[in-house]
Amino acid sequence: MEHQNPTLKTGEDSGSGVNSKCDTIENVQPALCEKKILQLSLNPSLESIVISSKEKDLLASRESDHDPRNWPAKKKNLILFIIAAAGILAPISSTIFFPALIEVRNDLNTTEVLANGLVAVFILFTGIAPLGWASYSDAYATRRKVYLVSIMLFQITSVICGIANNIWVLMLMRALQACGASAVQSIGAGSISDIFHPHGEFPSISTTTSPLIGPIIGGYLTQYLGWRWIFWFLTIFGGILILIIFFALPETFRKTSPSHSLPQTSPTAPRGRFNPLAPLALLRYPNVSLTLLYVSSVFAIIYVQNTLISKNFTQLYNLRTSDVGLVFLGPSSGYIVGSVIGGKYSDFVFNKSAKKCDGGVGYPEMRLNSTWFAMISLPASYVTYGWMIAHRLGMMFPLIAMFIGGFSCLIVFNSTSTYLVDAFPGRSASAIAVNNFLRSIAAATVSAAAAPLQDALGIGWLYTIMSGLTLIGSGFLVLVYFKGKNWREKLENEGT
């Protein structure tokens, strides 16, 4: 049963005199103050307990000191660095495996569809698992425990993947490995919103180095040491992360909720109740569902390309496994540039738009202004890429198209992810978990179907159809930009 927060009764309010020991804040006993608060919370009807103004000031001061948003900048930056490093775990575990698909297929004597299924199942559970992690984190007010437990799961499954001799065992362990690796993708955004204010100092973070280094590492490990060394590398990396988090990462969960969040009737699991499906209730808000439909279409075309790079560049350009890993430099460099520029550009556009509002305070939908160019360049680059490799043009040309596509994707992801956090500041972990869930389902589906679709449609037409879907999806984001503010205000009015 939830207790209402009691109204603190000060000595002046009650008409009684204030104890002389509380005349100065230095003389206030914190333990006694906290005992009074506990008694009032258990029985709000008590009239005999009086909290002096000095005691109230001390409690407010102590609460402010414990608020992660009031921590020193040095401590915040350390936390940001640790979360960014841990955030690499899931994407690098996914991308490091792409160059090894042909070797795994041959070594385990399996089919192309099942080999690509190793990619699909990892992506799928990368999207499903954060629903549970985010719900647990929000319900039991913890981030740190989630990080430690999830990465320990990642460690165990990575070892089993390294010794697996059966495609089905490997696929099961890849699914559990994804569960362990994916927690940071949703909880990390929650940790950042815990320590930074959503307006002004909220940083745009992204783990875009993993698509760059993951395939390169995977390509060279597979060619010179064998594909199993991919998992020994991941085991070592996960072990380092556990040590850093255990010794250097404090609990960041904020005990207070932002006043500008959606009404309390929004889909929130009651504190202390674990409900992994609770974040999915956010999908009934059109701001969320329409935004994620577009993001999912973008994520789908990325994974069509990633899954087929090994096959296409091995067959059409006669590349070795290590060289296939280098092909990923094209989109990955676009991701990195898009991340660096996209975050700053998104903030610039938002601040510029906010200055035109009354009081210079903007609203979250203004951040979507920064996506207009990418909505056009993204499908144009992918359809161009498809027809270029279909006609076997020089490798430089599809690599340029991949760079532009990667750059455009990160412009979209930066703005939409920050929009979800700004629009749902009290439910940031759940909002990002739903984001990962939908886009991972889309990516897993197309990853499993990519090879048969390419065989049936041809390379050029496959990318033409996928690009057309992203163009249609961009219309949903335009609708959110124009209608999103009214939708949120309507929901707030219904909740009051």
Automatic annotation (TrEMBL):
Residues 79-485 form the Major facilitator superfamily (MFS) profile domain. Gene3D superfamilies: Multidrug resistance protein D. It is found in: Membrane. It is a multi-pass membrane protein. The chain crosses the membrane at residues 78-102, 114-134, 146-168, 229-249, 281-304, 324-343, 372-390, 396-421, 459-482. GO terms for molecular function: transmembrane transporter activity. Residues 1-20 are annotated as: Disordered. One of its GO terms (cellular component) is plasma membrane. This is 4914_t:CDS:1. The lineage of its organism: Eukaryota, Fungi, Fungi incertae sedis, Mucoromycota, Glomeromycotina.
